[in-house]
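quick one
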Amino acid sequence: MSQDPEHLLRVRHALPAVQKLVYMNTGTAGPLPVAAIKVLQESQLAELIHGRISREANLRKLKAKVETKKLVAELLKADADDIVLTQNTTEGINFITTALKWQPGDEVITTNVEHAGVLLPLGALHQRHGVWVKVARLDSNPLEAIREQISSRTKLIAISHVSYSTGEVLPVEDIVELAHRHGIPVLLDGAQGAGAVPVDVVQLGVDFYSLPGQKWLCGPEGTGALYVRRERLKDLSPSFLGYGSVEEFDQDGNFRLHRSVRRFEVGSVNIPAITGLGASIHWLQQEVGLDWAYDRIRSLGQLTRRELAAIPGVTVLTPDRAAGLVSFRLEGVRPELLVEILAGQGIIIRSISELACVRASLGFFNTEEEVEKLVRAVAAAKINSV
Ligand SMILES: Cc1ncc(COP(=O)(O)O)c(C=O)c1O
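structure w/ pyridoxal-5'-phosphate:
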């Protein structure tokens, strides 16, 4: 395991929320770094004191968007021109599903380990356009499961990079290769991917990658981003349009869409939040070190899986191909009750009703001692419940 106690201490010092709690729910919302909130507040103060409508204010807004897109692009190893800022993962997914053209009888493939952020946009495609949603069960071989669902009518594969429920990291490169052989684009839900595992959208080959700011990137809520592979833009006609989406328009409603992914920019945005997201990513890159963070997340996840699995009555659902999410059941203790018992000891995890389990998120800032505390608390919950 990546041991550098002083570095870990410095990192933890920058995250006030992890001082008081055993913070194991980054999969829902990560802890905020002081640096991000400082920058966010400075941005709000600048708006308060200098106003939002001056030439300087406009330059500040432009700078915030450009810099945050650049930082997201660096994170994804993408070009900043292929990034649009969004309000959350789900919005980015909807941008794509509602921009593609659909015919009744078209098919979309997803999996049995998806979040509502994928399932509901696909459900809407079924209701609105008569698109069939086919579900690949990832029980044994994800690639084969997806291959079995492909047909001549498949128009999109929409899946997680990392499953929110099982914690499995999907074999995305292989899935994309298979999909592209059939001419099918792939939309990745990166809610549990970005900031938790290395992402290289070019190497993965994905067509669309939607991510949140508030989870593993430790950014403010109401922030996110969407990557779109340039070659796919010709297939995308956004359902939401505004002055931000077009190069020009007239009073008769004629318009020319931006040639780039900017066509998904609609209207005004929350500049302080965007500035805060940029500051969080910058902090992760410069102060934490992304490789260090990925390595710690993976190692702590492995340690937690191993230790929990050794407790009698615990079933770990997360497979080996995982990062920091660890889902498990404790025999005889309802997931919601286990969450409550642990919360009473300052250990914050969540339940996942779909799998009747609980999920601990291991962040780069968590410690081995905290893992031990979790393990002891779970073991004690078992004893106390019998
Ligand atoms: C895999 C997955 N997709 C989508 C979401 C929704 O994220 P957001 O609130 O950013 O839309 C979540 C978490 O809430 C998630 O875990």
